[in-house]
Amino acid sequence: MLSLEHLSKTYADGTRALSDINLTVHEGEIVSLIGGSGCGKTTLLRLIAGLDRESAGQIRLDGERLSGPHPAVGIVFQEPRLLPWLSVFDNIAFGLAGVSAAEKKARVEHALEKIGLAEHARRWPRDLSGGQQQRVSIARAFVTNPKVLLLDEPFSALDAFTRASLHEHLLGLWEETRPTVVLVTHDVQEAVTLADRAVVMQPKPGRIFDELPLTLSRPRDRTGLPFETSVRRVLTALDHSLKAPQAQPQRERDRQAAALWW
Amino acid sequence: MTGPATSQAWSSHEGAAALAAPALAEKRRAFDGRILLGFLLPIAVALLWEAAVSFGLAEGRLVPPPSRIVATLWALAQTGELWTHAWMTLWRVLVGFVIGAAAGIVLGALSGSSKTVRHLLDPTLQALRAIPSIAWVPLFILWLGIFEASKVALIAVGVFFPVYLGIAGAILSVDRKLVEVGHVFRLSRLQLARRILLPAVLPEAVIALRSGLGLGFMFVVAAEFMGASEGLGYLLVDGQQMGKPDQILAAIIAFALLGKIADSLLVAATKPLVRWQDTVRERL
Predict the structure, then answer these.
(1) Least confidently predicted of A21-25, B31-35, B204-208
(2) Which domains can be identified in chain B, with CATH numbers?
(3) B159 in Cβ contact with B97 (< 8 Å)
(4) Confidence of residue A251 (pLDDT cuts 50, 70, 90)
(5) 8 Å CB contact between A47 and A59
(6) Could you tell me which of B22, B25, B17 has the C-alpha nearest to residue B282?
(7) Which of A158, A188, A208, B102 has the most CB atoms around it within 10 Å of its CB?
């Protein structure tokens, strides 16, 4: 279980990127963080990945406090970030430390099979298309069997067809080990396709506006009515979060209502 | 730059990309006849001058015709003099290059990877760099004598600066995003240097070494001017003092060939290290 407690991040120049984030993600759950630009989605992910330090609050994984990059936490960035001097095979194997050569080979080959790039193992990243590169990057994160996988808008630079096929590859890999996934996106369709829960965020300072459970059965039918309804619900929440930048979070309002009532 | 653009276009058909790759490579290797155009001008000028001298239109004493230059080169090669001089020059460049490049790589790496070292070293080195290297000659002769040590020192100084600047700059410009990949996988400082920084700076390091080598050849001439009894630079001085322009031109041609061969060897030796690069290397 991944839990964020009163997490805040203020940059050196005084910008409040995140303020008092509280979020619990259960084991094997896919949570999608969604919101307009500048609402701190990426910052939040970088904090969990240990690439930045929080200003206040803490992040716990199964009770253990995270400080800095952790072996059980993997991340896929917005860009593939493959190392251009390593072959596709070696790129996927990059994070496999302390594993025997045979085991490494088996794991990487299995991952290559899963992402449908088995015959490209010996090629350079430069020979792959953008979508293929991103698949390699996802495989690189999965191959170390992380408990938590962070995805930072990994499909935003791809065309719609490639994106849909990557969603399937991602879910295919996820089915195997069922890691906890935190997916940052600004694409509502994507959130509804992949996630068990959508967390809508709000900017200035970045905070959680609303949480919506997405309880559709898998595999999800993107053309069905339940899918459409879910998309609309998330869109509405997103709309509210943007239209009412000063709107206060739910519990704040409850507390004020309670105060008035008394 | 055709590589990525083409493979992007094929992204929906992976098989097609694989098929297209060899065709592209062939295209890159295909011979372009226009390369030969470059030979036209020098050959025409040489032939014209040769004709002018042989028909008595020009004397050709101060500007010898090509045939006489070739004859001089041939004679020097026959007596073995050319090889002695060329070998001497090459040896000086080599020793100076190794010392200068080694110092440049070590200090450049330190200054590129540590802010403290950079603040400590860089201002002094930049100040030293502003001194025209030939200005060191009198001092080097006083300190190291008139023989090999002072010459090699001058060449090493010439090689050092481009290598130092290139390596330090290359390390400073390594993509932060790739370094973060190393952080995510919890690489130690040493692992980060070996697995990410080193390969990332290799292409620029090769360019720095090449410009260092070029300067090494420049400085070997200066070094051999300041008093040598052997070396291609000595042939130049000797040709001037004895009034033999054909010998000067022969030595210049030998310099050109030697420099080009040394550069090609360096490129060939480093090619396996940077063959992953996504650029058209022929243009460098």
Answers:
(1) B31-35
(2) 65-278 (1.10.3720.10)
(3) yes
(4) low
(5) yes
(6) B25
(7) A208
Q: What is the token pair recorded at A141?
A: 């994160």
| B151 pLDDT more than 60 | yes
Q: Structural domain boundaries of chain A?
A: 2-86+137-261
Looking at the partner chain, which of B21, B177, B202 has a beta carbon nearest the beta carbon of A79?
A: B177
Tokens at residue B51, please?
A: 């004709």
* Buried/exposed B239-253: b ≥16 CB within 10 Å, e otherwise: beeeebbbbbbbbbe
Amino acid B109: pLDDT: 92
Looking at residue A256, what is its pLDDT?
Answer: 56
Mean pLDDT estimate for chain A: 85
Interface residue of A82, A96, A127, A137 to substitute, partner B, most B CBs within 10 Å:
A127
Please give the residue of chain A at the shortest CA–CA distance from B4. Answer: A126
Per CB-CB distance under 8 Å, the chain A contacts of B184 are 49-51, 69, 74-75, 95
How would you classify the pairing of strands A64-65 and A56-61?
Answer: antiparallel
For B109-137, what is the mean pLDDT? 90
Q: Which CATH class is domain A2-86+137-261?
A: alpha beta
- pLDDT score recorded for residue B18: 43
